[in-house]
Amino acid sequence: QVQLVESGGGLVQPGGSLRLSCTASGTISRINTMGWYRQAPGKQRERVAALTSDGSTNYADSVKGRFTISRHNAKTTVYLQMNGLKPEDTAVYYCNGRSVGNVDYWGKGTRVTVSS
After folding, report:
1. Could you tell me if 112 and 82 are in contact, meaning their C-beta atoms sit under 8 angstroms apart?
2. Are 99 and 46 within 8 A, CB to CB?
3. Cα separation of 5 and 112, whole Å?
4. Which residues pair with 91 in a beta bridge?
């Protein structure tokens, strides 16, 4: 099993920045891709950013140039640096780990609110 715990959410003004962290534990050797998803009220969960084990990254068009996904300590900690935050970035952000066999592991989420 893999456990994922997010932190770093909060309230920020438009144009501000936040850094989310996701700490992984358990059988992390199973994980091939780490990612961040978000779900806004009344909307479907969407992928924001992903980072594969070979270092490749992928971003949703809506966050390109503003968000950066990175990794520390091999696979144990993944970050999402969010700059230039907009009200439409308000959502619950979830950390995701996907195994080679496409099994998804999820954290419980951390809430980000962008408001003046």
Report:
1. yes
2. no
3. 15
4. 112
Token duo for residue 73:
């300590």
Give the Å distances, CA to CA, from 76 to 1, 33, 65: 14, 12, 25
Contact 106, 87 (CB under 8 A): no
CA distance 99 to 6: 18
Tokens of 101: 């066999």
pLDDT at 35: 96
How far is the C-alpha of 97 from the C-alpha of 52, rounded, in Å? 10
Classify each residue of 35-70 as buried b or exposed e, where b means 16 or more C-beta atoms within 10 Å of its C-beta. bbbbeeeeeeeeebbbbeeeeeeebeeebeeebbbe
Task: Please say if the pLDDT value at position 91 is more than 90.
Answer: yes
110: Cβ contacts below 8 Å, ≥ 6 apart: 6, 7, 8, 9, 20, 92, 93
Residue keyed to tokens 């059988």 = 27
**Model pLDDT for residues 5-62, shown as the tens digit of each residue:** 999 999 999 999 999 999 999 888 888 999 999 999 999 999 999 999 899 999 999 9
